[in-house]
Design brief:
Strand order of the largest sheet: 2-1-3
CATH class: Alpha Beta
CATH topology: GIY-YIG endonuclease
Order of helices and strands: EEHHEHHH
CATH architecture: 3-Layer(aba) Sandwich
Radius of gyration: 12 Å
Structural class: alpha+beta
Distance between the termini: 19 Å
Number of domains: 1
Number of helices: 5
Number of strands: 3
Strand content: 15-25%
Largest sheet: 3 strands, antiparallel
Length: 95
């Protein structure tokens, strides 16, 4: 089973949210329909802009914690290296 660390954004260089899950498609759907978290619902953070896959849940959780401690500029740099156009990657998950 795969585990995912992901970043959602409200818009390009907007509000960011970092999370971890074992079902990325479902989790992003939950954020999009408003049942994912109060933070993402309040700030309309629904665009999947970054994710990485891990095989071990403890590694994914540790990575999520590290990303959450990163300065905002580092998060933006990671997103722009992975997804320079800040495309919403959610649609790519279901192909």
């Amino acid at each position: 089973m795969a585990f995912f660390v992901y970043v959602l954004a409200s818009r390009q260089r907007g509000t960011l949210y970092v999370g971890v899950t074992n079902n990325l498609s479902l989790r992003v759907y939950q954020h999009r329909d408003g049942s994912g978290s109060g933070f993402t619902r309040r700030y309309k953070v629904t665009r999947l802009v970054y994710y990485e896959t891990h095989e071990v849940p403890e590694e994914a959780i540790a990575r999520e914690k590290r990303l959450k401690r990163w300065p905002r500029a580092w998060k933006i740099q990671a997103i722009e290296q992975f997804n320079p156009d800040w495309r919403d990657l959610y649609e790519d998950l279901n192909r």
